[in-house]
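Sample entry (257 residues):
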Amino acid sequence: MIYRYRYVTHSSFSPAIEWHFFKLRAIPCNNEFQRVGAHDLVITPTCHLCHSKDGQGNAVQWGSFDAIHDSFEVVSEGVVVQTEPYLLHEKPAAYYLASTRLTEYTEVMREYAKDGVRKASAEPFIQALCLMHAVHAHLNYTPCHTSTTTTAKDVFTDPRGVCQDYAHLMIALCRTLGIHARYVNGFIAGEGQTHAWVEVSDGQVWRAYDPTHDIAPSWGYVKIAHGRDADDCPTNRGRIYSWTQETMTVSAVISKI
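Predicted structure, serialized as tokens:
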């Protein structure tokens, strides 16, 4: 299956700023499930763009401006070719079992996870499927109720949030049972913004789970990056050394060719 993607973020600054450093993860990754074909990344205002990889192995694009500007725009577009199934043969790092600031869990959450898989086999993928169903049933999709600092413990107690929160809660519950789990961001078919889902490993292979939609992803899920949680792999993060009010809009359009 072939998909065309177009990802745009536009920031406006008031007042204008003089110096701005940015780090992006704006180009889909290459793996067994998907290959990136022709692609283009345009930054406005123009600047020298550097390419590297982060600690998780994700492609990173970064640069800076040292002239006055009141806007910043990223346009990433191209083609991705996908083949089923969504399987990634890669051994997991031990830190995908460790809780982080955003995926900390309580003993109550551990018992909740145990109850969720009580009738399931010990197979990690089957237990992850049970936990995905449990998270989807537990949370209510509520835009603008949470923030980027909301933790899995927060949404377990107050079960309202968006895709990032669904992913963090599922990751936390998996880790309470000793299942390797990691956060994924990317795009899904249609129009919207970025999306978050979860990858789970049995020690050899990673499979994908989307607790927001309660499905195992396949076609149309375009992966950008992964990490222990959302803090590891934001699509757009910057640093500004002056006071300003930033207004940002984000859009992502994925269409089948």
